[in-house]
Amino acid sequence: MTPCIWAWYAWSMTTLFPFLILACPTPATVVEVPLLEGEWERPAWDDLEELELPPGPDGEGYVLVETPEVVVWADIDGIEFEEPLTVATGCSASVIACYQPGQRNLSGCLGDTPVCEDGLTPCCPRRCATDYQEALRRLEEPARAFMDTVWGTNSCVEGL
Amino acid sequence: MIVLLLSIPSAWAWQSECYTTEEGKTETVYRLCEDGKEKARNRWRPEPGVIYEHHDLAIPEHALLWDSALLRAGLPEELLSEFELRTFGGLEDSWVPVDADPLFVIERTVDLGQLTQLPDMSYTLYDWASGNESCPVDASLDPEKCHVFEKHMGSYNSSHFLPQARVFYTHYHALALDRAGRCAELSAELSGRSDLDEYLLACEREALAMEAVGQHYLQDAWSSGHMWERWGSPAASDWDKLGTAVAVAAASGLWHGVKGLAEKKFPKYDWDDAMCAPPPAGEAVLYVDGKDASLQHAVGDLFLNFAQNSSKHTPQLDALYGCSIAGMRDVYAATGMKHGELLEVAEGTELRDVGSDACWEQRVTNQSLQSGSQLHVGTYPSQRSYSIGGGLMGAALKFRFLLDGEVSIDSRAFWKDYNRHSAELALLAKDAPQGTEAARGFYGVEDPSLLGMLPNGGYETLPDWLDPAYPWDPNVIQEQWLSLLFADSHAAERCETATPEYLHNLRLLDQLGEEEERTARLAFCEQMAKPHLRIGTEASYHPLDPLCGVLDGRVVYSGHHNGAAVDPDQGVKDWCQGTLLLDGQFESGESETAWELYGEAQISSGIYTVIPHTGSSMLDLYIREWGDHAYARGSQRLLAPVPTEGAEFVFRWRVLAKDDYFRFGCESADPRFLVRLDSGEYGQDGEVLLNVPASDWCGDDAVKDYGSWKLSPWSDEVTIRLGPKEDPILSFVSLVNSGVYDVHVLVDSVRRVK
């Protein structure tokens, strides 16, 4: 991420550094000013445990789909919180649960989602918020930018 | 406690069902069919008044939709009636139809509405015709496994979702129209011959059967659960492996919903498919109509009855009926309409062009698809929603195959794609809740695929296993099955292809084997021979020419008959059984001589009888004259018509014998088969008429096996000119020198040519 993008992001989050507007070229209409209004329910891993489901294979988790040929189960206790796919899924779920057009945009929700580096989960890696801004400048459309940020080939989730 | 157990559904579509009965130890069990053979052998509507297990879920919705449409369509109501499709089985416990040597009759009582359910029971019509006993999609697969929905059929059912459903319907609609056109041509060719209407009616039923199968896909396209592009292709060549297809089907099933199977499997739990069921208060399942972009309410599988009683859902059903009726009217109007005239559609019906986007571009909204990707536990209106797609649950999902053999996928890649698409869907549902981007296959996103499989719009080429286009080639086995399934409808085609030899080989077998076999052989002979058989001789035959006579196709002649007094149907039966010969009248000098069988030989009901070996090498067929009548002189003799002196008679024969007879006969030093005409005591003054070399009747290719019996081919025609001999004897001389064997000499009609 370029210094200017960092600066734009910091400005947009705090509005404490308006001088940076003069220091950097203006990103072409793509940087999203965080918007975060109203209440929403932040998803938590504990929510999953409210569901009592039949035990999965070898007693792992809970069955969702079962036929003689295939079994799909949710292994709640076996979730590896550090695993990149878990991180990406948790990040997506948290941001999208927050996202509400007109009230809370993706920038605002990314900024409000716990940062993995702080040891919280579900979370988004710190760089996701800034990567999103860069992706938004490139792709212009917020949803595409968010998906590219988290799920794209250069995901903000290391190792995905 | 809430217990969730989901299963990949047995059919993701408006409900289709198959009903069967089973005699239990203490009572009759009325249950639903298992996948595979049972579904090909049983009825697809419940018996009236019978309560089946899971009866609250076992609703033949596809058939009911067809019925409702047909009643509004102005088609003759007779087309709602059941009809018989008869084929013949040639292997024990197999419903694969055969075109020779049947062992039993297979009667299917169906109606057109039932056939709309076929794509949930079988891959194709020819698959159903063969009793689901082959695997159309992969010849190397065990047929039973091939037809287990969760194992394989589900992997191919992306064609039941838009837009592939349109491609499949278009294929079947084209077949239906093609067949209908042939029906119209045939109707013109048979003008004035109402006694041949059975062929025209069968042709029209076949055309509409094709339409009914195709309308399965049209009906699915109007179920809310199918108004989106599930991932996958119905052609295995598009998969990298089976595991991918199964996994993709499972993911699609999670979104579509699983109520149909889950509630059957776990009846004490209630489920609703979030995309098919009416939603909780304050929510809606909506689709955008391709005709006018209007937003409409929708329900789907298992909720037809709800829709029929909900004014909010009237536009959905009206649209479906408008398309369905247009399709069936197109087809029926293209036939000769022997079932009756085509009336106006019911008042208020708004027809849609079934080939246009108005029937195929409906898609559920992003919000509705997002809703569909959730779990609904409980039933309307108190169902509870649990998030899977787009939620944290995605991080906990795992997948394991329990399939036979080496089947695997990259599980991590699968869940990565699944969770990515769930996130995309959740975003779309918030950004454009009434848009249809997700239902149109996520095209426009960087990678719309799931495990490398595109949404089904990426695969609009027809798979090579689908029912074939006309004309059907009887040398291609699947096409032969179809021709046999619609045997009467295709009788006109057989006028060109069936050889007299083929027809003759069906004859005189009605006393071979157990009763069931005899019945089957006679019925098969009658069915196949009737269109070809002129009752009479080339010089004089029944005025009601058979189908192939009218069409200038191949005909065979029954031989002498009693003139117009012989009913053609009876004439066919007689020809197949061989009794016609003995009922004939022949001129004898200046007076008529009636030829009949007398004595014990009559028990054999025809022109052949069991002739125990007498210890000599002779099997004798006597031709005698006895006053005005011919008759059997003894229990070991068969009498054939005796001509007047100087007359010429033409006949053929074949030999049916115990296996040992053939073996001994063919292993002897001089295995000839002679036909001699003697006079007086047999063996005297014999005239050798024919000397059949061993290769003609001992060769493996020439002789057919019937268990412990063997049957020779028909002989060539032999002409006998009778001289002034008082007591002519025709002798079939075998070269068996000892022992006692059961032998039948089967004699074709004797034709007097002079």
Strand residue percentage of chain B: 5-15%
> What is the count of β-strands of chain B?
27
Q: Trace the largest sheet of chain A across and list its strands.
A: 1-2
In N-to-C order, the SSE pattern of chain A is HHHEEHHHH
Major β-sheet annotation of chain B: 5 strands, mixed
Largest interface: A-B, 53 and 47 residues
The residue fraction in helices of chain A comes out at 40-55%
Structural class of chain B: alpha+beta
Total strands of chain A: the figure is 2
Q: Termini distance of chain A?
A: 19 Å
Taking all Cα atoms into account, the compactness measure Rg of chain A is: 18 Å
Biggest sheet features of chain A: 2 strands, antiparallel
Outline the structure in words.
The complex is a heterodimer of chains A (160) and B (754). Chain A has 160 residues and is mainly alpha-helical. Chain A is built from seven helices and two strands, in the order αααββαααα. Chain A has helices at 3-14, 20-23, 45-49, 84-98, 106-112, 127-139, 142-151, and strands at residues 62-66, 70-74. Chain A has a two-stranded antiparallel sheet with strand order 1-2. In chain A, a hairpin with a 3-residue loop joins strand 1 and strand 2 (70-74). In chain A, helix 4 (84-98) packs across helix 5 (106-112). Chain B has 754 residues and is of the alpha+beta class. In chain B, a hairpin with a 2-residue loop joins strand 14 (585-588) and strand 15. The relative contact order of chain B is 0.09. Classes of the chains: A mainly alpha (160), B alpha+beta (754).
